[in-house]
Amino acid sequence: MAVRSLDAARPVAAPASRRGTGLRELGRYLARNPSLPIGLAMLGLLLAFTLVGQLWVGWDQAFPLSGPPSRAPSQRFPLGTDAKGRNLLAVVVYGTLLTFKIGLVAGALGVLIGTVVAFVAAYHGGWVDAVLRVVVDVLITVPALLVLVVVASVIQSSMTTTMMAVTIALLAWREPARKIRAQVLVMRDAPYVLVARLNGASATRIIFREMIPNLLPYLGASLVMAVAQAVLASIGLEALGLGTPSEPTLGMTIYWLMRDSAFMLGLWWWILAPITVLIILFVGLYLVTAGLDELANPRLRRAAP
Amino acid sequence: MSVPLIELDGVAKRYGKTVALDRLSLRLDAGRAPIIAVAGESGSGKTTLASLLLGFIEPSEGEIRYGGAPLAKLGRAEKRAYRREVQAVFQDPFAVYNPFYRVDHALIEPLKLFGLARSTKQARAMLEEACARVGLHPEDTLGRFPHQLSGGQRQRLMVARAMMLKPRLLVADEPVSMIDASLRALVLGSLRTLNRELGVPIVYITHDLTTAYHIADIVLILYRGRLVEAGSAEAVIEAPQHPYTRLLVGSIPWPDLAISWGRDEPILKEDGRTIGAGCAFRGRCPQAMESCGAALPPLHAADRGRVVRCFLHAQDGAAFDMTRLSGRLGLAADQQESETVQ
Amino acid sequence: MTAGGLSVRDLAVVYRTDDGDVHAVDGASFDVGTGERLGIVGESGSGKTTTALALIQMLRPPGRVIAGTARVGEVDLLRLAPAAMRRHRLQTVSYIPQGAMNSLNPVLTIGRQFRNAFADHDVHLPESAIRGRIGAALAAVELDSNVAALYPHELSGGMKQRVCIAIGMLLGPALIIADEPTSALDVVTQRQVMETLGRQQQATGAALILIGHDIGLMAQFVDRLAVMYAGRIVEIGTIREVIETPRHPYAQALVASVPRLARRGELHGIAGVTPSLRRLPEGCAFHPRCTRAIDRCRRERPALDGALGDHRAACHLLADTMPERAA
Q1: B237: CB partners within 8 A, 6+ apart
Q2: CB–CB of C314/C248 below 8 Å?
């Protein structure tokens, strides 16, 4: 006998326009989780600063003999000059840009390599996974700074920002590989993946169309964290003198000001400018990672009032 | 000459020392469309059976054949056909939809990948027709995200998906166990429509005999990986013979105040005697005998066209050969007697 | 109303959202006597679990109880201060949840979880007495005393659920609320767990509320049954009354939708979809799906009239045909 199953009743009204509620919900969420927007604002500020600043000062001003050495801030040199005569405004503007570049390239490359390794290991399983897992576990125990110091000291004076980014990426992929592999392992057995297999989808299609979209927030968070760590690593290396002698990154500025005794000579403006930028950069990166953590992990979410 | 659709030949699956499924031989011929319920508690092997039928895992022993050819050795085209013709409905109505997409995604993907629709318009028409077939309003269902639909709607949509693909076999793995009891009728009705109107045989996996009673033609009862009773749904559920089936049936909470559960079937405390050779149920069986521990009871033919794996029913004659089971159950044409005894 | 047992009047729970107030429970009233079993049946989202959580003050914000009383003896559960409520949980009212897998602390042995229950309620006894009570509690749910040394992951689903029952009954509460305690279990284990629960309840004379969606289970277990729909109780009466002669159209459809032994092959669904609590229909919440709705149903919400012990249903059709009851 037929089932009296037709939904004869009045259909339930369609949900309210997605865009309207979406924005409102976003606003409410940002109010509850201030770390994310504040962090983004700080990074945005730096980015704006570096972009606008380029209209103000030229690239060449960030190099020695752009002006008289060791001058306190004045109208001509708003942030003063350093011991070699670099216009500190230009140094800070272009230094931030270079540091961003290193961070982004290293972070993106690291996450890319890590993702590929994670998928190969988790999707294939078996001996491939076993081998890769051992490799990653061993590499993770290697202290990054040590390796980077060794590599950097080999390259030394021919170091460029690109090379620095690649060097850092060589170790930056380890943690993302581990974390993303764990996610993929879980997803591999998810019912919607089984349904995709029943749809006749190939492994590639499943990975790109089914799994990766669900991983995007996770990948985003991994990227930001990788960028933060890359920036930290690069500045660390540069401050130790293993950076790029020909390019005025923020870390190199720190190195130079220490080497040329800025403290002892009382050249406070030389110290203040890069330090301020670094503080904003790190606090911003930290807030964004904390905020993303809260977003990606609902258990950490604070309950609505 | 009857053509087999799918066949399990002495199939067993082991994980290390644990036997998930113990040597099962079953055959379903093309052209027949029964609803076969496979019932048992967790650990009975029913989920393993589903995974084997869907080709997600390989048997440790024996062979699975599709259209006469071994599954493991199918060519590319045959494999593709198998993929399309054997479909499933899974247990969790939420997890089967990729939360990133609207529910349409799960239905449009197979149309695209199997080349079943020539244009977006035709695809849409197919979706709408399938929705109507399972009693869903397309405008209320399509275009929504999974969390916007109820469990019953999501499951019916999965059945609609199966209908669109016109499979030759559907494996329904506990399709209603995660849905409220009051909403199950609609999902089961849609499965029955698929079976009756489109002639698709269904392997209905469940731990709940109530629903099996209502839609299944044949019931197979599994216990710890072994088949213990098989027959028509009426025979097995109205008058169960194997002590485990009796326990199972006796524990069904019927919404009928005249039938109180467990009146006849006490639940015995399990003792440790289930290891080793012999019937796996003897530790909980109120009628266990000495011989039950000595050797595994073979299948025996019993009344009303069924088979029971129990020494209590041994008086009905010699052991029953499992290869003849499918014929006896009406799943396949009767096979010649073979020398191997189960 | 007997001295023991639970007495709930006009319970109302609201979730304050930015889209407006959502009335998850709207004016529920019912009694459960000592030793009596009341079932609350309804679909997901009907308000049954919210009712249970409200009684033990475990609603998560933005849910709040905005009205009603829930008396166990002299104590009104809804008016207790948080510290007092903590004391009463497990001692006076205990809650056995769905999905026992998640309720037991995975890093503590079963025995330690029992001990924590004792410690949290200031029950200080000599070690031998504690061990004795734990052993007795486990035996009461048909588990071996060596289970106390095991960790939750070493137990099966049914065993874990029985441990939860044992903990729930440890301090002899006057009221037990079992919220879908067997939904993850197979039929045989389900029966075993329910029989255990029933036996324990009878031994201690506690009042019991069983929440679920399976009318078959209710038929086999409870004395009285309340049917909830869209946050409201639409019918309440003895189990026999509600199952054999349901009066509310939703209850009728619900009872008819459950497969029975007698009528093989008949499947009856309920047309339509449960309304979202955010957008309840005017008048009777069920009227869009009701085959017998009249004009009055669209405008006016029917009340659950009648004396508390009677078989009551909130439906205009009944008011029209039944003679007026004496107030």
Answers
A1: B209, B212, B213, B219, B249
A2: yes
CA–CA min distance C157, chain B (Å): 10
C40 three-state secondary structure: strand
Q: What is the pLDDT of residue A81?
A: 86
Kindly list the partner chains of chain B, i.e. chains with 3 or more CB atom pairs below 8 Å.
A, C
Complex confidence, ipTM: 0.86
Measure B266 CA to nearest chain A CA, in Å.
37
Chosen CATH of A36-303 out of 1.20.120.1760, 2.160.20.10, 3.40.50.720, 1.10.3720.10: 1.10.3720.10
Angle between helices C127-140 and C110-120 (to 10 degrees): 120
**Strands C175-179, C207-212: parallel, antiparallel or unpaired by DSSP?**
parallel
Contacts of B38 in chain C (CB under 8 A): none
Q: Are B310 and B241 in contact (CB under 8 A)?
A: yes
Q: Would you call B98 and A198 a contact, using CB atoms and an 8 Å cutoff?
A: no
- Arithmetic mean of pLDDT, A82-109: 90
Looking at chain C, the whole-number percentage of residues with pLDDT higher than 70 is 94
Judge whether C179 lies within some domain: no
Residue C261 domain-assigned (yes or no): yes
The residue ranges of every structural domain in chain A are 1-32, 36-303
- Residues A297 and A290: beta-carbon distance below 8 Å: no
* Domains detected in chain B: 4-216 (3.40.50.300), 221-341 (no CATH)
What pLDDT digit, counting tens, does each position of A227-256 carry? 888 988 888 888 888 888 888 888 888 888
| Residue of chain B minimizing CA distance to A215 | B100
User: Which of residues 5 through 24 in chain A touch C, CB cutoff 8 A?
Assistant: 5-10, 12-13, 24
* Nearest C-alpha in B relative to A217: B100
Of residues B122 and A156, more confidently modeled: B122
Cα–Cα distance, B94 to B329 (Å, whole number): 35
Q: How confident is the model at residue B50 (pLDDT cuts 50, 70, 90)?
A: very high
**What pLDDT does A63 receive?**
87
Report yes or no on C289 lying in a domain: yes
Whole-number Å distance between alpha carbons of A243 and B36: 71
Angstrom distance (rounded) from CA C53 to CA C42: 16
Q: Cβ contact (<8 Å) for A7 and C265? A: no
Provide CB contacts within 8 A for A178, sequence distance 6+: A114, A118, A136, A140
User: Could you tell me if C276 lies within 8 Å of chain A, comparing CB atoms?
Assistant: yes
A15, pLDDT greater than 50: no
Mean pLDDT to the nearest integer, A263-281:
88
Entry pTM: 0.81
What local confidence, expressed as pLDDT, does residue C320 receive?
55
Q: How many CB pairs under 8 A join B and C?
A: 120
Q: Would an 8 Å CB–CB cutoff place C282 in contact with chain B?
A: no
CB-CB contact of B306 with B314 (8 Å): no
Q: Are B300 and B187 a contacting pair, CB within 8 Å? A: no
Using CA coordinates, name the residue in chain A closest to B133: A6
Q: How confident is the model at residue B295 (pLDDT cuts 50, 70, 90)?
A: confident
User: What is d(CA B288, CA B311) in angstroms, rounded to the nearest whole number?
Assistant: 9
Q: Residue C70: inside a domain, yes or no?
A: no
Domain count, chain C: 1
Cross-chain residue pair A12–C60, CB shorter than 8 Å: no
Note whether A11 contacts B137, CB cutoff 8 Å.
yes
Q: Say how far apart CA A132 and CA A118 lie, in whole Å.
A: 9
> What would the two tokens of residue A213 be?
């979209």
**B181 in contact with C at a CB cutoff of 8 Å?**
yes
Q: Tell me whether residues A28 and C18 touch, CB distance under 8 A.
A: yes
Window 67-96 of C, Cβ < 8 Å to A? none
Instruction: Classify strands C207-212 and C37-41 as parallel, antiparallel or unpaired.
Output: parallel
CA torsion B148-B150-B153-B159 (nearest 10°) is 100
